[in-house]
């Protein structure tokens, strides 16, 4: 019984304490409104939204002053510029002058052209190395030119029968198999040594519908010929050896290509004709 009274008294005390706190809060709020002091929260004043004052943009004179100072500094700093003379616009309606002075000015070279003409490219004097190389190459070509200087020539024409012709690829195969090397005047040459050294024995060129032609290695694989021409010139340091080698090669090519052998006059050549010609050459 006593316990229930205790709890009842405690509840009444709590209610009275709450009423006291509530009444005290109202009284403090009324006092604040009457005195004009703002409410605070965590030590900071609480100002109603409609009573707040925002800073205007006029409160930033420092920023404008800084920009003004920067602009003034840029204007005061000298700027290096190219000294270019102003070009007057050309009048489209102006007619060319026919006076001698105008013609002289028109014919005068421009400043840019004069500067280009005055450029020194550093190649006024010829190169000794290049000149020596060209001289050596020219001397080599002249010394190895089979048609340069000669008193006579022996020619064997190899013509496939029935108009079969000879392809450029076949010519390349023949040159490999018979020791012929491409060289001076775009011809194939047979030398004493198969690697191209030693005395030149004889040379080979081609024949087409237009007559004798040389071999262009850039197009040879796609070219087509009606025949081949073997020839040697004399005087010759090894005339008979060169002649025997040429006749032997011509006979082998005739069998391989099913061709006939003739001279430059289209006269058929057989073993008897070759032997008779060899006897004539032996006297040279």
UniProtKB/TrEMBL annotation:
Signal peptide: none annotated. It is found in: Cell inner membrane. Gene3D superfamilies: ZipA, C-terminal FtsZ-binding domain. It is a single-pass type I membrane protein. GO terms for biological process: division septum assembly. The chain crosses the membrane at residues 6-23. Residues 150-281 form the ZipA C-terminal FtsZ-binding domain. Pfam families: ZipA_C. Keywords: Cell cycle, Cell division, Cell inner membrane, Cell membrane, Membrane, Transmembrane, Transmembrane helix. It comes from the Bacteria. GO terms for cellular component: cell division site; plasma membrane. Its main location: membrane. Belongs to the ZipA family. Essential cell division protein that stabilizes the FtsZ protofilaments by cross-linking them and that serves as a cytoplasmic membrane anchor for the Z ring. Also required for the recruitment to the septal ring of downstream cell division proteins. PANTHER family: CELL DIVISION PROTEIN ZIPA. This is Cell division protein ZipA. It comes from Moraxella pluranimalium.
């Amino acid at each position: 019984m006593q316990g229930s009274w205790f709890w009842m008294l405690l509840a009444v005390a709590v209610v009275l304490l709450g009423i006291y706190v509530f009444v005290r809060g109202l009284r403090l709020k009324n006092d604040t409104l009457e005195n004009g002091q703002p409410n605070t929260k965590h030590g900071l004043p609480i100002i109603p939204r409609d009573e707040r004052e925002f800073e205007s943009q006029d409160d930033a004179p420092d920023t404008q002053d800084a920009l003004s100072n920067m602009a003034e500094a840029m204007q005061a700093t000298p700027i290096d510029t190219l000294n270019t003379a102003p070009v007057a616009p050309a009048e489209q309606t102006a007619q060319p002058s026919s006076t001698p002075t105008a013609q002289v000015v028109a014919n005068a070279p421009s400043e840019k052209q004069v500067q280009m003409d005055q450029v020194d490219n550093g190649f006024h004097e010829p190169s000794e190395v290049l000149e020596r190389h060209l001289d050596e190459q020219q001397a080599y070509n002249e010394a190895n030119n089979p048609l340069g200087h000669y008193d006579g020539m022996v020619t064997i024409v190899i013509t496939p029968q029935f108009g079969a012709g000879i392809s450029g690829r076949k010519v390349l195969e023949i040159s490999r198999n018979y020791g012929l090397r491409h060289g001076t005047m775009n011809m194939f040459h047979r030398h004493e040594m198969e690697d191209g050294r030693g005395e030149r024995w004889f040379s080979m060129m081609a024949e087409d519908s237009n007559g004798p032609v040389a071999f262009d290695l850039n197009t040879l694989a796609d070219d087509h010929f009606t025949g081949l021409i073997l020839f040697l010139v004399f005087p010759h340091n090894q005339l008979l050896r060169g002649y025997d080698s040429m006749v032997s090669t011509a006979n082998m090519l005739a069998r391989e290509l099913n061709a006939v052998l003739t001279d430059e006059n289209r006269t058929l050549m057989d073993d008897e004709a070759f032997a008779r010609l060899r006897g004539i050459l032996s006297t040279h």
